[in-house]
Amino acid sequence: MRTLGVLVVLGLTAAFFARSGKAAAKQPIPAATEDLSLAKAPGRATAVFAGGCFWGTQSVFERVKGVLDTTVGYSGGSAATATYDQVTTETTGHAESVEVVYDPSKITYGQLLRIFFSVAHDPTQLNRQGPDVGTSYRSAIFYVNDDQKRIARAYIVQLDQARVFPGPIVTEVTPLKGFYRAEDYHQDYALHHSDNPYILVCDRPKIEALKQQFPELFVDYTGKR
Fold first, then answer.
1. DSSP tag of 3
2. What domains can be seen in the chain, in order of their start residue?
3. Pairing of strands 139-143, 172-175
4. Which is it for the CA torsion 106, 60, 155, 30, positive or negative?
């Protein structure tokens, strides 16, 4: 769907932000009441999120303090079908995903979820994000352990009960069975194609929302750290 004309992208994305109101909100959503404490020593942990086009999701998380590395790829299907040409057929079971490697002594999983739900995407849209339509653009959390499963599910219940969003959260919470790195040209796409109309309209607002809502967690990003 990223081959849509610029005018279509502009129109649909404007409607998307007007409808959700969350990605551009002035105040972040509430913090997760159930979370892990910061680790006592530096380390590396992994989280995997799917929230529409992986270009934009990556452009958010790579600008978060405590995040050590991000990689775009595919999750939900098999290794045999983990190519962009196959995933875009919407028949593979894959979702465009981002693997986030972070230091749990600097940022918690619950804080990553807060960013995911606040600015990275609209969790109330089923099998789409803005102009991108299909199950490969679905909202999903691929957990790697029981703590992530527990925290993610509890946070969704918390946000739904508080009616933070205008509709129910449709985000899947499912075990990570595999993460398959996407093609090189997709990595850091928003950074390397900052003047692309799709990036300007769909992804730059997410970066600005991150900077506005989470100034204490925002860090400039110019490439691999």
1. T
2. 6-213 (3.30.1060.10)
3. parallel
4. positive
Q: Across 52-184, where does the E strand assignment appear?
A: 67-75, 95-102, 128-129, 132-133, 139-143, 172-175, 179-181
Taking each helix axis as running N to C, give the angle between helix 54-61 and helix 204-213, from 0 to 180 degrees, rounded to the nearest 10.
30
Residue 127 amino acid letter: N
Lowest mean pLDDT of 13-17, 30-34, 80-84, 181-185, name the range. Answer: 13-17
Q: Yes or no: say if 162 and 47 are a contact pair by the CB < 8 Å rule.
A: no
Distance CA 13, CA 88 (A): 20
Helices (H), 21-93: 54-61, 84-87
The amino acid sitting at 126 is L
Mean pLDDT score, 117-121: 96
**Residue 109 neighbours by CB under 8 Å, 6+ apart:** 35, 36, 45, 47, 147, 148, 151
The alpha carbon torsion through 103, 105, 107, 108 (nearest 10 deg) reads 100
Across the strands, what pairs with 100? Answer: 47, 70
- What are 74's two structure tokens? 């595919």
Phi (first) and psi of residue 64, to 5 degrees? -105, 125
pLDDT of 83 above 90? yes
Burial classification of residue 42, based on how many CB atoms lie within 10 Å of its CB (0-12 exposed, 13-18 middle, 19 or more buried): exposed
- Which residues are annotated as catalytic? 53
Residue 53 burial by Cβ neighbours in a 10 Å radius (0-12, 13-18, 19+): buried
What's the CA gap between 104 and 122, in Å, rounded?
Answer: 25
Tell me the sheet residues that pair with 77.
none
